[in-house]
Design a protein that fits this description.
With 125 residues, this protein is an alpha+beta fold. The protein is built from 2 helices and 9 strands; from the N terminus they run E-E-H-E-E-E-E-E-E-H-E. Helix content is 23%, strand content 39%. Helix 1 crosses helix 2. The termini are far apart.
């Protein structure tokens, strides 16, 4: 299975945040993890009524999505999950009990990787 790139991670007292590349396959994989851990549904299809009154479904292209915010629905309504879209990255913010965040982190570790950073070398004067 293809792994997704996790660019950054952080936490505060009651939430964690994760920074990913804004790619369609990232949304697909993250959606599966969110569903497994939180029983949530990340909307990946858009339904609209055309001028003839016929409903049309089309897959959402997250890579073309402009900057903005979206809340992800979940069945239990316990965790609050938000996604903030930037130009090339998206930030996932999860507000929930630390035990659920730990479970999410364990599942995320199976499907993601963090690139190694180069050590900082100060400039010589």
């Amino acid at each position: 299975m293809r792994k997704i790139r996790l660019s950054g991670i952080g936490n505060k007292k009651d939430y964690n945040y994760y920074i990913f590349e804004k790619k369609n396959y990232s949304v697909k994989i993250l959606g599966k993890v969110l569903s497994k851990v939180f029983d949530s549904r990340w909307k990946r299809w858009d339904e609209k009524e055309d001028k003839n009154g016929k409903w049309i479904s089309r897959k959402i292209n997250f890579e073309k999505r402009k900057e903005g915010h979206e809340s992800i629905e979940n069945a239990s309504n316990k965790p609050k999950i938000d996604v903030f879209y930037g130009n090339k990255k998206m930030t996932l913010v999860i507000h929930c009990h630390p035990n659920l965040r730990k479970k999410f982190n364990e599942e995320l570790e199976k499907v993601s990787y963090m690139p190694k950073t180069k050590p900082f070398k100060p400039r010589k004067k």
